[in-house]
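Support request from a user on the community tier.

User writes: "When I paste my structure tokens into the form, the page sometimes reloads and wipes my input. The last time it worked, I copied everything first. Here is what I submitted, just in case something in the input itself triggers the reload:"
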């Protein structure tokens, strides 16, 4: 079912607000739980949540022979992206730089979609993405102190962005006809398995069960994995993957505003100008 213009705009705004809060959750859990232990719990609970909703709404699971595709999308979009980016930040990569690398996703989506999957776009979409990346850079530039980070850490961070880009494109081209909730249950199960393997390989063991941990899990499962991912896929099905991916450019600048409001972090005029430029770039891209 296609979305009306007003409903599409409202859902897009809600998606960006939710997606940007992922950076706040990442900061919230520091010192409380190891990254991949947190992700394993998040994805496992999300798989259960989507499985229960699929049963209640009587949605149909795909044939077992097709589960491999759902697992692959989950491994790329959930396990590789979040596991890789959390690990890179833990190894000293500034969170702002990870956000900037994440902003490459719309450009990668455009390139892969056009060259390999035959999607169509135009010059305005590319110009909008470039403007959005410029705004994203201005928004996170005060926090870009890159010192002592190895090439390997940067490579893992970039590979994680490639992972979610490939995963979401495969979501659209492989799984567009599958019922959404069973598919998300399978994808999150794959993400949970990936996180468990990474936690074991990296020797992670920190887990403090307190209010902060419970709040982070609730928000990550119900709001980010639940509503946020559902909105992303719903919007991608209702419009082009490039136009939807461009919304991701607004998440880091908006997270900067949220950090200013919640944690008292600095918000400069340059950062605010970057947010406005990113907003204009996304608007221009979505007109393309």
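"...and here is what came back when it finally went through:"
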């Amino acid at each position: 079912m296609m979305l009306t213009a007003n409903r599409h705009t409202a859902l897009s705004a809600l998606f960006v607000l939710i997606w940007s809060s992922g950076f706040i959750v990442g900061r919230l859990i520091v010192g409380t739980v190891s990254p991949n232990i947190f992700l394993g719990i998040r994805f496992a609970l999300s798989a259960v949540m989507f499985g229960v909703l699929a049963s209640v709404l009587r949605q149909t699971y795909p044939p077992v022979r097709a589960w491999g595709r759902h697992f692959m999308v989950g491994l790329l979009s959930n396990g590789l992206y979040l596991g890789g980016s959390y690990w890179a930040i833990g190894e000293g990569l500034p969170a702002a730089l990870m956000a900037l690398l994440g902003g490459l996703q719309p450009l990668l989506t455009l390139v892969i979609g056009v060259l390999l999957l035959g999607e169509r776009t135009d010059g305005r979409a590319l110009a909008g993405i470039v403007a959005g990346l410029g705004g994203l850079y201005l928004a996170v530039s005060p926090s870009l102190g890159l010192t002592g980070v190895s090439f390997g850490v940067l490579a893992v961070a970039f590979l994680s962005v490639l992972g979610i880009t490939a995963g979401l494109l495969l979501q659209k081209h492989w799984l567009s006809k599958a019922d959404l909730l069973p598919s998300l249950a399978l994808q999150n199960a794959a993400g949970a398995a990936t996180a468990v393997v990474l936690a074991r390989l990296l020797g992670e063991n920190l887990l403090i069960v307190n209010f902060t941990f419970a709040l982070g899990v609730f928000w990550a499962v119900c709001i980010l994995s639940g509503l946020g991912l559902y909105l992303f896929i719903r919007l991608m099905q209702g419009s082009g993957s490039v136009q939807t991916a461009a919304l991701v450019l607004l998440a880091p600048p908006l997270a900067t505003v949220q950090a200013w409001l919640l944690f008292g972090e600095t918000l400069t005029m340059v950062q605010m100008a970057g947010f406005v430029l990113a907003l204009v770039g996304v608007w221009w891209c979505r007109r393309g």
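Agent notes: The reload is a front-end session timeout and is unrelated to the input. The two ends are 22 Å apart (CA to CA). Residues 17 and 254 are 7 Å apart (CA to CA). Escalated to web team.
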